[in-house]
Every structure is written in structure tokens, then in C-alpha cells.
Design goal:
This protein has about 575 residues and is of the alpha/beta class. The chain contains 18 helices and ten strands. The protein is elongated and about 125 Å long.
């Protein structure tokens, strides 16, 4: 935790330094207001001493008016300084929080595909939100509590030292004991605060997971078991929180006793000093004002120390993510990909998933520019792995993947992805309009170009049936559309992108026969002049491919055209074809 606290502080300071002048101005103004606030009781001491010593009101009226004017002047200074604090801290802090939000967004998005496979999206969002809120709370605590309280208390000690050193020593000893006790208590309680944050994230993750899978929960009668699992998590949360709250209540009780000791002790000793003629009525006013000020400030100080540690606990989970290096990064001297033809080559590629499970070894494969290829084979054969490695969703363990002779590890990921149009088997859309989802393929496309792409993908007809047409929101992940409609939108997006390499992962699997026929015509036009890789389970869709590559257990078993592969009596492709054809005949 100590290391992560340093990491958190480092991130916060790096984002704050751009506005160091405004933060410095705010701190200076807070120091000024703190000192002025601690000096005002001195004026009131003089005010009441003047009243007590006067034999007639008229004798001291002007002096009292002068002292009130002095108080008004000090309050006016505080008012001005607080305006400086508010305006400077508001601008600097809000801009810093903006930058923190952007940094969290950028760093999370730059993590690899495998990173997101291990994470709950709702939990990631909560961690990032907590991280930025923790910054705001920590900075407010530092400026408005630690700095302000330190100078208020410091000024009080200086003033009291001039009145009586023994009384000052009592106050200082009490302060040291109070602060040290609170710090030790907060450090002890920190482990429970961290557990609370982690359990809180578990609740969010469970919420997100079950709500995302609400259809499965209903159709597979999972409500009972999901409810029980959620109850176990919330029970764990409740135990930790009750313990944390009980510890806080105990601490509050001890603090209240210490406050009583401070107030009674100071006033008791003030009476003794008054009896000896060393204290005046004004001194009692001064002492009582300082007791009230100290009680207010130090009570808050104790609470804030605990909250300080709690905010660091809240920020810890996002700091852990910042600590994780991005698994797949651009090389130091990475250059943009330049495609002249579109040749793709796998050279002696070995890939171990998470460095443990071997998927392929010394794998070699060439995709010639302008040709169309189909990858077929049983589930788990390695078809998707070939595509994922080409897209750099994972890095090869050994070997190279070349595009026109350029290693994918030596080019920038952005230009790699810009050169590929990808249509997944189960497209996920943004909760935005149909127009925006299709235009995501090429953000500078005009509305007319978007509509043309939609027509080519047989989208236009169903889009025009919506009341808002292309402005229709598709819902989270595109849930308002059918599977076939989502797939047609994804194909329209790929058509609009018009990249030199096209990858189709069972792109027409969710379509009816008529829609598939229409889209197949559009895809035939889209494929012209491009390097095309198609992952297919439905073999009837790939009969016209220039070459069919049959993959099994991470190795190429057969390759050739549809007719060539059917001639192999004991071939895997022929066996798969006969299974499907037999199913059609039956």
C-alpha cells in the first residue's frame, strides 16, 4: 500500500503541476485566512478588557468602535482571500480532474484485449471514477484542512505562548497526543478500508455481470443462485462496513473525552491564573474562543486523517491498473504501415496463450495480395488465433507476421488497424445512432456516403422503417436491433472503411438466406482488389474463395480450392462438407 500511495501521489502531482501557480496562490490565501481567523479573538480580548476596565461607557465608546472596525477589517481581508481561494482552486482543480479522467480513459483503453477479458467493465468504470474523486477529496483535505488547520493552530500556539508558557505546553502536548493517536488509529483501520473498497468493487462487478446476462439468468432459472451469490458478497460488505463504522464510533467517543479534557483543563488553569492576577476577563474570552476554534478544527482534523487514508484506499485499485504495463505496445521506433499490395505472411510463428498453453508452433502461411482466403476447421483449431495475431490482439511468442514485408511489431498499431476492415461474428454496437455507428468506419464520411454503404449492406430498408431513421439510437451493445440487423450495420461500417485488408469472421451467420444473398453480392464487390480472410463454419458461403485453408490443432492440414479439396477422399474438408451437406439433405 505504501508503494501504491507513492504511485498515486506521483500521478496526482504530475497532473497538478501544470497549474502550480493557481494552487500556490490558493494555498497562500488559505494561510492568510487561517492566520487572520486566529488573530480575531485577540481583538475581542482587547474589546472585553476595555469594557471591564472602563469606569463609564462614554470613556471607551470610541475605542470600542475602533476595535469593532478592526474586526470588520480583518473579516473583510478573510472575505477577499477566500474569494481568491475559491476562484483559483475551482479552475485549477476542475482542469486537473479533467486531465485525470482523460488519463484514466487513455491508459485503460491502451491495455491489451486479454486485459479486458479478465476485467468487469462496470468495475473498471468505478475504479476510474473513484480515482478522480479521491484526487478532489485529497486536495481539498490538504488545502482546506491540513494547511488551514496547521496555520490556525500554529498562530494560536504563538499567541498563547506570549500569555503563559505552561498553558501553551499543555495545549501542545494535548495536540501531539491527539494527532498521533488519530494517525495510528487511521493506519490500523486502513486495511479494513481497503477491504471495503475491494468488496464495493465486487458488488459493482456482480451487478454488471448479472444485468448484462439478464436473459441467461431468466431463461436458465438462475435467479435463485445469482441472488444467493449476490447476498454473500453484500454480507461480506456488511461485515466489513459494520466493523469499520464501529471502530469509527469508538474513536469518536475517545475524541469527545479528549475534547472535554482540553476545554475543562484550559479553563481550570485560566481560573488559577486569574486568581493570581495574571489573567484578565479578556483572556477568558480569548481562551474560550481558542478552545471553540481548536475543538472545531482538531475534531475535523481527526476525521479528515481517517478520510485521507480512505481516499488513498479508494484510489489504490486504479493505481494498480496504472502500475500494469501495457502488454502490447508500439516499438520505440515504430513506423506507420504502408500498404502497396497487401501481402501477408506468417513466418515460423509460435504462440503460447498467456505463455502457458501452446496454440501453434512454427506456423507458416502466406496470403497473397488481392486474393480471397477461407479459414475452416473444427472449433478450437486455431482459425481465430490467426486473425487475432494478425490484428495484434496478442503478440506472437516467436516468429514474425509481415504485411508487405513490414513486421507487425515494427509498425504502429493505429496504422495496422486502419488498414484492416473487420466484421466480427457477433458485432457490438455503440449506444449511439445508426448513422454514428456506421460512420465509425470512417469518421470523415459524409451522410450520403454512410447511406450508400448502408444500401450496399442491405441496411437502408430496415433503417428507413424506424421513426427516427438514421438518428435511431440502437441501445447498449445494439440490443434494440436483431442479430442480423447488427451484422448488417457492421458490414456497412466495413464497406465504408474500404481498407485494403478485409477480415470476415462468419460475417453472414446471423442473416436469413435472402439477406445473405444480397449482402454476398455487396461483399463480392467489396472484396475486389483486397486481401480477404474469411473465417467460416458454414462451408456453403466460401465455395468461391481463391483458396480454402483447413486448420486443425494449430496446423495447416489441407489447402486448395473447394473443388480440389472435395477430391481428397479422406480429407478433413470433404468430411466436414459431407456432414453439412448431409444435414441439408436430411
Amino acid at each position: 500500500m505504501k508503494y501504491l500511495t507513492k504511485k498515486t501521489l506521483k500521478i496526482y502531482l504530475e497532473h497538478s503541476k501544470k497549474y502550480w501557480f493557481l494552487f500556490g496562490l490558493a494555498i497562500a490565501a488559505v494561510i492568510g485566512t487561517s492566520i487572520v481567523q486566529a488573530l480575531i479573538p485577540l481583538v475581542y480580548k482587547e474589546f472585553f478588557d476595555t469594557i471591564y476596565q472602563a469606569s463609564a461607557p462614554l470613556e471607551v465608546k470610541n475605542t470600542l468602535f475602533y476595535l469593532l472596525f478592526k474586526v470588520a477589517g480583518l473579516y473583510s481581508i478573510m472575505w477577499v482571500l477566500w474569494r481568491v481561494v475559491e476562484f483559483s482552486i475551482t479552475y485549477a482543480q476542475s482542469r486537473t480532474i479533467e486531465n485525470l479522467f482523460q488519463s484514466c480513459f487513455s491508459y485503460i483503453h491502451k491495455h491489451s484485449f486479454s486485459f479486458f477479458q479478465d476485467q468487469f467493465i462496470g468495475s473498471l468504470v468505478k475504479k476510474a471514477t473513484r480515482f478522480t474523486r479521491a484526487y478532489e477529496a485529497l486536495q481539498d483535505t490538504f488545502v482546506f484542512t491540513f494547511v488551514s488547520n496547521s496555520f490556525v493552530v500554529g498562530t494560536i500556539i504563538v499567541v498563547l505562548a506570549q500569555r503563559n508558557i505552561l498553558l501553551t505546553s499543555f495545549v501542545v502536548a494535548w495536540l501531539v497526543f491527539f494527532i498521533v493517536a488519530n494517525i495510528l488509529f487511521s493506519r490500523f483501520k486502513l486495511k479494513y478500508d481497503i477491504k471495503r473498497s475491494k468488496t464495493d468493487s465486487k458488488i459493482s462487478a456482480q451487478y454488471a455481470d448479472t444485468l448484462t446476462n439478464n436473459v441467461n439468468v431468466k431463461l436458465f432459472n438462475g435467479y435463485g443462485q445469482e441472488k444467493k451469490a449476490f447476498a454473500n458478497i453484500t454480507k461480506e460488505w456488511g461485515i466489513i462496513n459494520r466493523l469499520s463504522w464501529n471502530l469509527s464510533s469508538l474513536n469518536f467517543a475517545v475524541q469527545a473525552l479528549l475534547m472535554i479534557v482540553l476545554e475543562v483543563g484550559m479553563m481550570y488553569y485560566a481560573v488559577i491564573l486569574w486568581e493570581r492576577g495574571l489573567f484578565t476577563i479578556g483572556d477568558f474570552v480569548l481562551i474560550q474562543s481558542y478552545v471553540v476554534l481548536l475543538v472545531h478544527r482538531i475534531w475535523d482534523f481527526g476525521r479528515v486523517i481517517r478520510h485521507w487514508y480512505e481516499r488513498f484506499a479508494d484510489a489504490e485499485e486504479m493505481s494498480e491498473i496504472f502500475e500494469m504495463p501495457h502488454e502490447i505496445r508500439d516499438a520505440k521506433n515504430a513506423v506507420p504501415l504502408e500498404i502497396e499490395q497487401g501481402n501477408i505472411e506468417f513466418q515460423d510463428v509460435t504462440f503460447r496463450y498467456r505463455q502457458t498453453r501452446a496454440i501453434m508452433k512454427d506456423f507458416n502461411l502466406k496470403f497473397s495480395a488481392g486474393k480471397s482466403y477461407a479459414l475452416v476447421g473444427p472449433s478450437g483449431a486455431g482459425k481465430s488465433t490467426i486473425v487475432n495475431l494478425l490484428l495484434r490482439q496478442f503478440d506472437v511468442t516467436k516468429g514474425k507476421i509481415l504485411i508487405d514485408g513490414q513486421s507487425t511489431k515494427r509498425i504502429t498499431q493505429e496504422t495496422l488497424w486502419r488498414s484492416i476492415s473487420f466484421v466480427p461474428q457477433d458485432p457490438i454496437l455503440f449506444h449511439r445512432s445508426l448513422l454514428e455507428n456506421i460512420r465509425y468506419g470512417r469518421t470523415d464520411a459524409t451522410d450520403e456516403e454512410v447511406v450508400e454503404a448502408a444500401k450496399a449492406a442491405s441496411c437502408h430498408e430496415f433503417v428507413m422503417n424506424f421513426p427516427k431513421k438514421y438518428k435511431t439510437l440502437v441501445g447498449e451493445r445494439g440490443v434494440k436491433l436483431s442479430g442480423g440487423e447488427r451484422q448488417r450495420v457492421a458490414i456497412a461500417r466495413a464497406i465504408l472503411r474500404n481498407a485494403p485488408i478485409l477480415i470476415l469472421d462468419e460475417a453472414t451467420s446471423s442473416l436469413d438466406s435472402e439477406s445473405e444473398r444480397l449482402i454476398q453480392n455487396a461483399l463480392d464487390k467489396l472484396m475486389k482488389g483486397k486481401t480477404v480472410i474469411v473465417i467460416a463454419h458454414r462451408l456453403s458461403t466460401i465455395m468461391k474463395m481463391d483458396k480454402i485453408i483447413v486448420v486443425e490443432a494449430g496446423k495447416i492440414k489441407e489447402e486448395g480450392t473447394h473443388k480440389q479439396l472435395l477430391r481428397k477422399k479422406d480429407g478433413l474438408y470433404r468430411r466436414l462438407w459431407e456432414l453439412q451437406a448431409g444435414g441439408f439433405i436430411a
